[in-house]
Amino acid sequence: MQEDRIVAHVDMDYFYAQIEERDDNSLKGKPVVVCMTSNRENSLGAVATSNYVARKQGIHSGMPCVQAKSRIKDLVMIPVRKDYYRSVSDSIMSVLEGFSLKMEVVSIDEAYLDITGRTNFDEATEYAERIKEAVLKAENLTCSVGVGDNKLIAKMASGFRKPDGIKVVRSGEKLDFLGPMDVRRLYSVGDKTANALESLGIKTIEQLRGASLDSLKGVLGDSKAEKIVAYSKGVDDSPVNERERTQIGRLMSLKTDSDDPEVIKAEIPQIVESIAGRLMTSSKVFKTVTVVFVLEDLSMKTKSHSLPSHAKSEDIILEEALELVDEFVRTSELKVRRIGVNVSGLEGDKGQKSLGDWF
DNA sequence: CGACGTGTAAC
DNA sequence: CCTTTTACACGTCG
What we know:
single chain; alpha+beta; 5-stranded mixed beta sheet; 5-stranded antiparallel beta sheet; 14 helices; 13 strands; 38% helix; globular; DNA-binding
């Protein structure tokens, strides 16, 4: 069994809620949820993260805050402070950089570290311990660390002993580690895929491993089928890579559902402003502008337009977005619930003038 | 092939 | 009927 790579996955424990707990001792031991608040009239928004006290009482991410509150009488609800969490995250990521030259930041609270050459499987637990100590020392927050010979195993391992845990899975242990798990826990298996698998009588990862590839392809498509079968065997050759953003977007709820183009367009300038700001700080140029509509039935529609060449100006995003809203509203039957804008086809701004910059 | 639109998944 | 943001695969059209 080849243990030619060693990859660690570091996952912060209940990140937002843990930060709030850390900053306010009176929260310890109480059920806490951090809420994303929409600007809607009749909504308290949804749960972004909950601490483990709340989770034990059935609270989970995405749950409407009203529902969470009705379930737990003394629930502490805290509004998200995304910018603050981002700064904490930046600090943690710079700590992690000290443990690997090849790091992939997956999200605000998660990163892969290629630690090949930095440690070996016999000492991996101690190495993970050192990572956890460094994070604790720097930010007084706990995380969970998984180690394996690829990203998939590292990811599955970090989730195994959460919170505040370490799990090292050696190459020879991969199959036994994954086998008994519910397929739903396999990375890249969500609701739809799990239901499709269930229709084939597949419940565990071991069963997925033994299933006929052809029948899987029939239900999931070639690419997805091949991918999850490889995963079920613990196979994942994808490298740990720094990621570059390829799109930047923002979506927001309207105060009330509307089919009035002027009401919808009124939200666009501030959305575009925030995108342009992020585009600027990351010094990127874009090729395509997309407007996203979530309709009253919660279905999602998009309208996009690609420019003849890359651009970076806020005015172009605004102009394109407004035009796309008009186009959409002309043909839509349903009211709009949420509106968003997205720029994609991002590339580093090398500073050369592109035609669009002057308009 | 590039552009456009949808679906799925993870956070 | 519940939020936000990003990635990626895939189908279709010209």
